[in-house]
Amino acid sequence: MKIGILTISDRGASGEYEDRSGPLIADIIQNHTSWEVDRREIVPDDFDTIANTLRRWCADGLSCVLTSGGTGFSPRDITPEATREVIEREAPGIAEAVRAASLQITRHAMLSRAVAGIRGRTLIINMPGSPKAVRENLEFLLPVLPHALDLLRDAPDTESQHRKV
After folding, report:
1. What percentage of residues in the chain have a pLDDT greater than 90?
2. Reported pTM
3. Burial class (CB in 10 A: 0-12, 13-18, 19+), 117
4. Does the pLDDT value for residue 165 go beyond 80?
5. Going from the N-terminus, what domains does the chain have, and what CATH number goes with each?
6. Smallest Cα–Cα separation from 119: which of 157, 145, 155, 152?
7. Which of 18, 19, 37, 17 is nearest to 27 (CA)?
8. Residue 96, pLDDT above cutoff 70
């Protein structure tokens, strides 16, 4: 499985801010799965840049793209809209379940506008920009992702091969 990590942040893309959530996602993926982090990039909160990057990575055959940032209420938070432009089928259960789990930790989770969906055989999941929230979201998602990605590849019996023992 090849994973892409796309951080959406104006300040991160300009170098004003050190991205901490992208490296954290990579560390969690590398330490808890057998998957390969194939791509990592930081882009500004720009609709076309986000959408074009997602399209390109899906066309390149990544299994999953995890985005970080741009899912809140700020006027520049447009990651969900750019993601909806790209996906062919929404996966609302993922975003709903993550929000429900996050609400057990903080009421601010109800402010998340994150979406998840499928383009071709690539699963795209929006996550918050906060490293703390990213960790919480991934801990909740990770047990389900292998099966989801196997289903996209028409290989539902290989779920256990992706977890490190």
Report:
1. 93
2. 0.93
3. buried
4. no
5. 2-153 (3.40.980.10)
6. 152
7. 37
8. yes
